[in-house]
Design goal:
The protein has 143 residues and is α+β, with helices and mostly antiparallel strands. The chain contains two helices and six strands; from the N terminus they run H-E-E-E-E-E-E-H. The chain has a six-stranded antiparallel beta sheet.
Length: 143
């Protein structure tokens, strides 16, 4: 009897700590205008067809936090645009060229590379996979 009560207290404590962790991560993400990240992973909705056939419009993608030096040509990255008509939006495109201090990206379904040079401060994460079950759970694009 005492063991099961002790285990219940431990599980309750873990749940409370997890709740504080998630709340903190949401608060930090909102203040920094970044996607919510839990254990270095985030989920985002993809509204366009720029990455077809790998990522379709309406897909939810899982991406992990990454640093500039960990990115290679052919990686699919998420970055926050700083200029043009996409300024302030998160873009998920493939790295097609590496230069000294920046990358050139392009959507797999786009005819031309992106005009913007992707620098270290713009990179948010690296694509991991499509997570189709989230669209089923959510039923629409708003998380």
């Amino acid at each position: 009897m005492k063991v099961s009560k002790f285990i219940s207290y431990i599980l309750l404590g873990v749940c409370i700590l997890l709740w504080f962790y998630v709340s903190f991560q949401i608060d930090v993400a909102i203040k920094r205008d970044l996607p919510v990240s839990l254990f270095s992973y985030s989920v985002s909705y993809v509204p366009t067809n720029s990455m077809e056939d790998e990522i379709m419009p309406g897909d939810y993608v899982l991406f992990k936090k990454t640093e500039f030096g960990q990115v290679d040509v052919n990686d699919v990255i998420v970055y926050k645009s700083k200029s043009g008509n996409m300024k302030g939006n998160y873009i998920i495109h493939r790295v097609i060229e590496e230069h000294n201090g920046y990358f050139i990206t392009q959507g797999d379904n786009n005819p031309l590379p992106d005009e913007e040079h992707i620098t270290a401060d713009m990179i948010v994460g690296e694509y991991v996979k499509v997570v189709s079950f989230i669209g089923f759970i959510v039923g629409h694009k708003t998380l």
